[in-house]
Every structure is written in structure tokens, then in C-alpha cells.
User: Fold this.
Amino acid sequence: MSKGSFINKKLDRRKVTLKGPTGITQTFTAKANDIRYTYGLDLPNDLGLFVGFVEVTDFVKNSGEGEYTVADLAAIEGTNYHYGGWSMVVVYENPSMINRSITVFDGYAFVRGSVVADYTIPISGFSTVDSGPVRMKLGVAAGEGDVAAFGDYFEIEKEEGSGNFIRLSHSGNSINNFFNSSISTGGNLRNPQLKNNTGMDISIFEIPNDNNEILKNGQTGTRFRYGTDGDAYVIYNIITAVEANEPLVEGYHYITPDANGEIPEIKPLDEIELEVEIRNLGQISIEKALLELNIPNGLEFVSAETEYFFSNSSGQLPEFSNGVLNWEIGDLPIPNSKDQILGKIAYKVKVTGQCNLLVQSCGLPFVLDGNIVGINSITGTSMATAPLKIGEDEGGSCLESPIYGPVLLDVLAGEYLIQECGFDQANSLISICQPESNSVVNISKLNSLFPVGTRYFDSFPVSESTIEYVNEIPFNISQTYFAIPSDNPNCPKEFGLRSGFFDLEIEIEEAGCGGSITDRLVTFNSLNQDIAVSYDYLDGNGFVQDYSRSFPVGKHQVVAQNSLGCSQELEFEILPLQSFTVDIQKIGQKGICPDFSDFALSIAIDSEIEDTFYLTIEGTTGEGESFNFTNSNLSIGTFEFKEIGPGNYNIRVENTEGCSQSSNLIIENEDIAYLEANFEWKSSNINQSGSIEPNEIILFENLSIGSGQLDFTWDFGNGVMSSEFSPIHSYTEPGNYEIILSVNSSDGCFKEIKKIIEVGGPALRVPDAFAPDKNGSNDYFFPVFRQIESLKLWVFDRWGTLMFYSDSLTDKGWDGTVNGVNSSQGIYAYKVEYWAVGSQTKVVSGSFMLLR
Assistant:
């Protein structure tokens, strides 16, 4: 080409230059599979006509509305019968307009002139409306159609599959000269405006479909037919836009307002409720609708509740897994109106408290997005994925049109980041809880603020002179540093360092000695007056500004935190007056009712110096009586006091300087409760002849002991009961009777003991204890028997040593001595062999207690 300033410029069929409304130009190159071209001017080579296609979506999005111009189109200069030109197909979405199914045919359909022939192009993938008028808009782009050449036509099939075609035309052509170099696109300006339009046909028009003569309701495809008997042309674009039966589901996603209708402020650790309202805006029911909500890292899923506003719903409960909340909504019917809410889900998420997730690398909010998918109930095909609506456009060119996108949770984390993370977000300063005298900061102190894998540098962009800090970073408060996440290296976080370290002085009020112990005032003095410090006294009220408080005797802990997020744990002790301590404990087997009382008060006194202490125990017993005990000669150590029962007492310990400590103590019944059930029986015969006979009077001697008031129940084994302490009873019939003594105490204890008594016939009973204290009662250990002809008794200690032996029926028994020496208290074993008339020799053995 050699025209104007373009001298000897070689054009390329695969390349064109496109200029947009903003004046920006860009050169586009068709791919090898996106261009069809031939060479030469003869019919076998399609007259040398070529067509190329290229994607320009991003360019048009960035350039916006206005006039577009194409340059460097590879066409031959002159007035021959060749054509040259360009067209652009724009498919767009406008929610305020009627929904249409768009089908675009890009190709190369060449028809030779003077050849009688026709060809068909099938079009499918749309679905016309179920009822009412069916409308289709058609776009056609072709080349080399001539105004003066007739015989070319373009047709559409009348009813799908009928084989009957109807010829089409628009305002700029005729049915016998469809391709006539006319441009009819609804009023768009042409430049240049030529009669023959350089051989280009570009048209947009409505298919005449009165009474749905051509396209029927529910139709999903059609065919076009084209041909010629004179003119040659090439069709490279066919676009159909059918008012379609497409499902249109809407999910309105929003943050639940508070009671005042306002969106609440969101802070770390807050629980936020969001809702999604489900509507069917189309005229097609939807099957197997599914809502998917993506919960990002940094938001913890808490709970979800769903609600349906139509009957016979087929949905399932929501399920959360791997960061996605899925709600199988089920089938959505055609609503009574477009505004009808068919279902709703309300779900809660909790904002993280993790510092590295709150310190966003680029200050981005948490993003909650999702979509709805389902099945077209008419075609059985998947509907287009529907993004969630977050509002409506109130100020744009499309008023009240929906705005789609994610819900953004802007977390007000500034104060939290300072207090909990040591990061001043407003000034990009990280507080380091160490004095400035420390020359370096360990990198581990920064890792909690940034994502795993973050690298630290002294400059950005990173160059050869940039220093990377791996293990530690200089503690330079005037230096700027850069944290670069591994997953987003182009989004550095600039930050500086400052010292958040602070010193505290603990001042404990001095106290004199003489009266009762009182609390002491403790004051915390901050040595860094320019930084505010608050205190948590661990009383459940959190941090307060009070820097002094009274504390009782004992060890205490307070947490101090300054406004830069640095904290200290303070431990101190309020010592008793004159530095002596008293520890009072109740000892014993509380709650298990032992056989004997083992309760005692343990009073442990400790002092830094040797001293003598005066103990006073005063109070009221459980019976309402006054109690008073004193001991004026206690030393350092532990003192056990057993002579005390249930009641309320004050225990006071005083040293020789007049300093004292006192403590109130309650001793409950269950602290000292004990109980042992036991009895023996006696009769005149068994004492004399060793035989209990029928109708013989027997004394049952109650040996039970215990705390509190005791109640007794005797069961003599023959249906007779008694509540006496030591009852008298006799048996009329011979036999073996089981005697049961049950004992209940007012302290909540219960014990029982069972023994067998034999009435009539030979019998032998071995005592289970004796006390050889020479008081005339129970001084000897020997079996009690009747109608026995002979016996032998052996007594052994726990190691098997023989302590006593007798084979005399008249022996008094063992007196608890061996060779005149008293044996110690404890458990001993016995063995008895005895024989009675009419029976074989019997052997009994067991153990008994020697009491002293």
C-alpha cells in the first residue's frame, strides 16, 4: 500500500489495529485456527475471499461506549468486485431487559455465483417461551454481496423439522437480493457511507413470527438455509437472540441488620449473622437448586437455619465442609409474583482473633461470596450459575438493576490489634515488648502478625542491595521494613518498630502489729508515664484503670497491660504480721463413716523466727453449747486437736509480740461421723454349762459405738424385731437363727452386723475379741459351748508362733500373756477341734482381736 504517509506499508491478513473511544489503539492478531483465507482470483480458490476472527472483549470493556475504528485491514485498493470491512458482535447482559438465548455462528460459508445451490445451518441450544408470542432477533454479517446482482437469498425453517423454509428480508434488502451490501443495524452511523458499502452486509432484524408461524412455543432449535443462482458471497457471522425460557433464580445476600435496622459494627471475635433470600424471577420451575456459600479463612462457621415459604419443599439441612456451606434448596416452583421469597437461610460466622489473619496484607476485608445452581425443569439441562445479589443500582443508567458480587465484612480491628497483637494499624507500627537497648528482634515475634512463609526485607521492590532478615531483624525505630507474603509477593506490608516495654514498681503498704490482721494497700507505679497502663485483677471485671487496690494476706497475681499491647504478669505476696503463718486443716476420713473417730484439727504454725504462740478456740457446738479451748505454750510445728465436735468456731493464734491471726471454721457432722455395729449374747446356761436351750432367756448386749444419735433395729431371725438398746429374747424351738443388728446415726451413717446363734444341740462359739484388763469381764479368750465332749484350742500370732494351747473343757482360756509377759494389742489366729456325742470331730479356725 502506498497512499498518503503510508508508503510501502505491507499489510497482514491476520492483523488489524482497533482504536476505541478513549483513543487507545491495540493491534490484534488472529490465531491460525481463527482465520480462513484463500489466494488468487479464480472460483476454485473462493475468489481469494478471506475472513478472520479475534477476541476483543477486554479491550471493549476497558474502552467503554463510543465509536470504534479499525485500521490496517488487508484489502486490495481499487474498484474491482472484491470487498473489505469489519464487524463486531457484542453480547451483553442487562438484568432489566428480557432474557434471551444467544447463539453465535463464526465460520466461512462461501457461495459461488452463477451456481444454483443451497445450504443449511442448524442452530440449537435455546428454548423459546412456553406460551405467548415467540420472538427472535437475527444478526447476519457477510461479504461480497452486490447491489446489482440478484438471485441470493437467506431462509429460516417454518416449524422445526418441517423442511419448509421461508425467505427473509429486512428494510435494506429484498427476498431475492438478501446480500446486497446493505448495513441495517438499527440506526448506527456508517463511515464511509457508500452505496455499495465496500461489499459488506451487516444487518440486525426481527424474524417475522406472527401467530408463532415460524417458531413455536418450547422450540429448542431451527435451521437456516442460504443459496444463490447469481451473486457470489461469503457468510461469516450469524447471531440469534431468542426470547427464551431460561430459569432466573435470585439469591439476595446481606448482613442481618440490628434492632435499629443498621448494619452492626464488626470487630474481632464477634458473631455475625447473614441471610440469603431465594426468589424465582422466571417462569420456569427449577429442580435441585443448590446454594453454595464460600466461608473464607478467618471466619469460623457457627450455625445455620433455613426456612421455606411454600409447601412440599424437598430441601435438606445445610452442611458445612472444607470452607463451603452447602444448602440443597430442592425444587423451586413458579411463584405467584417475582417478589415472593421462596426460601431463606440465616447463618452465623465468627470473626477470627488470629493476628496474622487480621493484619491483611493489602487491607482487604473478609469476602463472602456464593452462587446458586440448578436444573431447568423443561430442558433437563443445567441452568447458568447464578451469582448472589448484594443490592440494587440506584444511581446508574440501569436503575434498580441488581448488583452482584460478594458481601464484604470490614472488620474494625484497630483497637484489638493494638491490645492483642501489638500492631498499630493506623501508623503501621509493631510494638515489640522489649527495651530499645536490645539491638535485635527475633523474627518469631513478627510471625504471629503475618501469614506463614512471610519474608522480611529492608526495601521494596527487592533488588540486589536489599537485605533480607531471616532469624532476627535490627531493633531500629527509625527504619522502615517490608513484610512480603509468599502467596502475594507484589503486595508488601510496610511497617516500623517501636518499643512497648514498660517497667512497674510494686509498693506494698507497711502495717503495724498489735490488732487483728487487715488488708494491705498495693500500688503499681508505672515508670513510663507517657504510656497508659491498665490492670486485670483477675476478678472477672477485665482490665481497669485503677492502679492501686487492697489485698488480703496471701499470694496474688495481677496482669498489667499498656496501650501498646504489651503485658506483664505481676506476682507478689502479702505476708502476715511479724511474718508467721497459720495453716488450719480438717483431717480424717470424711464421708465414709469409719468404725472409730479419726477426726482432728491440724494447726500448723510457721515463723521466720523461734517464738511461742497462744492458741484460742472459741465457738458454739452443734448442740448450741459454748466451747472454749486454750493452749498457751505452742511452738513452731503442727498441733493436732481431737477433742472437738461439730459447730462454728473461731481459731486465733497470737505470738509473743501481740500479732495474731484468726480464722473462722465450720465443722460439720459429716466431718466427724463414725459408726461401728457390734453385739454379744449371754445366758445363765451358756455361762455355766455352755448350752442354750429352748425358752432360755438370752441377753443381747449392744456393743455399738458411733457419733450422733444412734437408732437400733434388732432382727432375731424368728420374725421378732426390737428397737431396744440391749434387748432380752428367748427361742421356743431349737435351730440356727441369724441375728441382725442395724444401726443408723443422725450423722448419716449406717452399719449392720450379723451373727448365728444355735439353740438346742451341741454348739460352740468363738469370741471375736477380748480385753484382758482384769476387770472381771471378758478377761480370757476361750470358746463358749454346750454339749461338747472334748475340745482342743490353739492360739497363734500373725507369724504362726504358738501363743496358747488347751485341751480342757474347764480351762478359763488364754489370759493374753506368754510366760507372764503381756502380748501386744492386735489380731491373732485360733484353731479349735471339738467332738460331741453322735457327731464327728469338727474343726473351726479364724481370727480375733486382743484389745488393751
